[in-house]
Amino acid sequence: MEIKLGDHPFDLDFHPSGQVVATGLISGRLLLYSYAADSTPQRLRKVDAHTESCRAVRFINEGQAILTGSPDFSILATDVETGAEIARLENSHGAAVNRIVNLTESTVASGDDDGVIKVWDTRQRSCCNTFEAHEDYISDITFASDSMKLIGTSGDGTLSVCNLRSNKIQTRSEFSEDELLSVVIMKNGRKVICGTQSGTLLLYSWGFFKDCSDRFVDLSPNPVDALLKLDEDRIITGSGNGLISLVGILPNKIIQPIAEHSEFAIERLAFSYDRKFLGSISHDHTLKLWDLDNLLQDSGNVNNPSDVADSDSDGMDLDDGMPKSSKGTKRKNVSLSGANNFFADL
């Protein structure tokens, strides 16, 4: 299925329990579509969300609301059912909001173009953590729920580990030659995989984040803007040449290209709530929904990851030192009415 968006998309997200997909456009608009197998997607909502581009999109509160972030520094909460504005937090960041991710049922994290990551607690209706983790834009964030740690990647070529329990930046990697563009956690929490501007995948061992433990250089000469974890041994990658590939991790191998969105770069990838569809957006102004079973029919069962363990035996949680960067971290408990009002109805 293909949806013509009419403009450049930056992010997409699927509803957590229904057949609805959302995307944010360079125009500042938020678009919501319903979809179903063997039928044409229907646009449900068009929201003029921001005065500048809509870079980040995330469903929250079991899909009742959707958050969007923008270079206009604001984060907007929109009612999914009506399209009405619930609340807008002006100046949520001091720079353009580039990424929003879900953490728990009541917390989300956002990253901006100055390298700052913030954690928002919807129960306390406030910003509960501010991590000045990087020197350049936040490209991606993922969450290790068992250890309550955020893994962030940045255009400055580093990876950061932010500890939500201690409210500190636990560590930051050495500078890579590449911008880090995307990140996932694999191998039952033992490996962190980063996509880079050059197309190399960097593999970090958990607890040893100062430098990568392995590099996979054979994937693509193009940027790897999007990574999506399929299971503990396989990831789906989206590259700057428009190819979507299935890749094995330890052993590192290209299992097979599984789709070609277009000749333009893949911006983001996402699974539908039931993992029946893979969504991709690209610079060609389209959102495509791929039948995941058809894509992977020659690549093994989607829900049956390999039980073969890799040979890596690195330890856990040894890299606990603080970064030597001039930037530190600070706890910011926002009690201003703007922050309270923002989450009051969520």
Automatic annotation (TrEMBL):
Domain of life according to the entry: Eukaryota
Keyword hit for Repeat: yes
Localization per record: Nucleus
Annotated coiled-coil segments of the chain: none
Alphabetical UniProt keywords: Developmental protein, Nucleus, Repeat, WD repeat
Main location: nucleus
WD repeats: 90-130, 259-294
Region (Disordered): 301-333
Chain intervals with Acidic residues compositional bias: 309-320
Annotated PROSITE patterns: WD_REPEATS_1, WD_REPEATS_2
GO CC term, one of those recorded: nucleus
InterPro entries: WD40/YVTN_repeat-like_dom_sf, WD40_repeat_CS, WD40_repeat_dom_sf, WD40_rpt, WDR55, WDR55/POC1
Family: Belongs to the WD repeat WDR55 family.
The name this protein goes by in its record: WD repeat-containing protein 55
Origin species: Oldenlandia corymbosa var. corymbosa
